[in-house]
Here is the input.
Amino acid sequence: MEPDYRRCGVGSALMKVVLDGAKEMGYTRLMLWSAEPLTDAIRLYERAGFHITERVKIRNGVLTETWYNEIKMVKECL
Here is the structure.
């Protein structure tokens, strides 16, 4: 998200729509993947009740030796 639009509640509003829709459709568990450098997004997911269940080391491009962690997050019992 563009920096000027961060911390305006857009992400929280979108998360609420997704969680409400999933609950309405009968889902009891949601899973998502994010990149560990995206700390603001991860905090949003944690505030929504997701927790980290897995980390996978990923190379940042084919011709680089830079690595980062992809993280799997899960929310149970919507």
